[in-house]
Amino acid sequence: MDVDFNRSQETHLKFGQILKEYQARVLSDEASLDPFSIVQDFRSIAGEEALEIAESGEENDNEQFQNWELEAKFWDLVGLLVEYRTSETVDKDINVHSYNSNVVFQKQLLQSNKGIYEIWLIKSWLEANIGIPERPSSLCTTKWSSSMIAGTVKSMDSDSILRDPTTNLQPDDRQNDHAFFVYAFRLLLAGQFEKLTEECEFTDNLTLNLILRGMESYVDPNVDTDMTDEYASQQGIKKHALWRRSVYALSQDPLLDPYEAAIYTYLSGDSPTNLRIDGLDWETELLIYVNQIWNVTMENYLIEHGRVDNDELITDMDTACPSLSQVLNILAAKYPDESEHPIRVLTASVLLNTIEPVMKSSTDMLLDVIKGRDEDNALFNESYLLRILTNLTIFLDIVSPDTIDISNKSKLLTSYISLLSYYGLYDVIPVFVSFLSQEEIVETYSFFLTNLIDPNLRQKQMEISKYLGLPIANILRRTAQRIFEETDQYYIVDSDIELTNEVSEVDQRLMNGVEWLIENGLYTDSIDTIIALSRRFLINGKVKALELFVDNHDVPNLLKEYQLERLSSQEEDHDLKTTELLQYTSLLSTFKKQEEWVKSSQLFNTESNLRSLIKQFKGFSNTIIKLVTTFLVDLIDNEEVNDSDVLYEIRALYTPFLIMELHNNLISASENLKVSTFVQEAIDLSILVANETDKIYLLFQSNGKLTTYLQMVAKASALFGR
């Protein structure tokens, strides 16, 4: 996992909070709910993180800054393209006539051709995210002032140096020109056309300023009535194809500053392969290619519809251009490192509308990690990638459910939830769980809850789950069930069970599972699970574990609440569950009385408390005799009881044990208290064991203790005979 995860924990929580608020608004049936606000908020978070890193000035954060910057751009693109692709708004049809301006025909193409409209959106996105360049401090307000003073330039006409090759600009003028054209080129790429025009006027670059006026095609709102909402007055040039070719021809002049030529290349919509400048990057060259696609497609459409006169086509220009997919392949070959950045891979998938294959490959990568085939996997080594993929999947599933494969969505979400759990970011886990299907919510969330022990964390999880409207009852039932299933291997009953005072971690985990139900008021389920817990503990000799659980919970109150639930659901009065649970509490009470007797007998040292001690022992003895004759008997014989064979095994384990313990206590008491009749009482217990009414001897036979017990009786008889 990435070492910077701890630093970015807060951002994982921020993204989760956005989704939490969205889910809450869904539950409240908010009328103005806009799912695209999700990606807007995502973009804001990423932008704020990038800004914070930039302002910190730490060199080690360059990679982090790039990741956040790319992510901010990514969410901006997702918002633009996905909103357009999923929009159900139908634009008003445009009535195109021969007398209309070319702008009207172009608008018709935009409305009828989704591909070119997306190109326009992509171009706008790239321009908005290219970054406004910093203005050079050396820009002059007068062009070529040094050369004019030196007399090497005799005309203020900026084209004069092209017409007269002998004209020699002074080095500082060339340097000033170069600085301006670099700045102007960057402004042009950033879509800062008004700013560029202002700078041309300020720096006396009148020729470029004039050329820029031809960027807009002619439109007259008085004639082009469909354009009145966009244009208030007549503007632009009519022969735009002629202007485009003139600018293109100008870009070919080798005497021009490379960046001035680059400006004309971009304005004419030419290919970036004709540029003579260095220092481009993936985004910049993508913009230049997209600009070419835009210009070529628009002009071809106008030519096909007879909107361009032949006299405008003064020079040949490319009428074909690479597709967006081909452009991305070109960039991948030219900028391999930049193209392979995971966020740019995602960006490319959004551009080409091929998100689902990327999702599929990502889930395959996750499976490789799970199966141990790929331990050095970027999707897990860089947690931000899994976060972006998960959030993208959630957003797309909201706005366009049919585009996301349910299986891939589930794998990404559950993997991200596991990552959040690993790093202790528990508060947002219910948020991401809430975007799964109902069945997966129960399975995934219950899996997480099984290992949650801290009471404060458990309470917080339930508060968030209620806020998000999760099916808490079903989740907690499955949580308890899952814990029972996962711990089943530790409670395999063998033929020689010994009672133990040990309370293991597994025992505690099992009790924690039952407590999920108790803590959240699921009383019927609580009683069912307490009975299952009691059976499991008792049949494995874990009396102390069950005693610990019962001591920590108000069982009488639980039974009271359970009875109220039964009344409200109009269940039958015959309640076997209460009977069974009370039998177990009676058993535990008997064990406690035995412990009390042992402690009391050990403290006996005079005859002053002999009478009270004998009375205590008699009460203890009678309690055992009563219990062994009734313990689980009615339930075992009742056909309505499930798993009565389990109850028989429990009775077969504890009835002989209690009788043998009472036998030993009677013998011990006869010696310590000098009451010889206790030996006879010990021998008489064999009559209880042997009678055909209770058939307790069968229980001794069942657990293999009959021979041992008979030897104890024989030994007591010999003792009594003396």
UniProtKB/TrEMBL annotation:
Keywords assigned by UniProt, alphabetized: Membrane, mRNA transport, Nuclear pore complex, Nucleus, Protein transport, Translocation, Transport
GO molecular function: structural constituent of nuclear pore
Keyword field contains 4Fe-4S: no
Compartments it resides in: Nucleus, Nuclear pore complex; Nucleus membrane
Residues of the signal peptide: none
Oligomeric and partner information: Part of the nuclear pore complex (NPC).
UniProt name for this protein: Nuclear pore complex protein
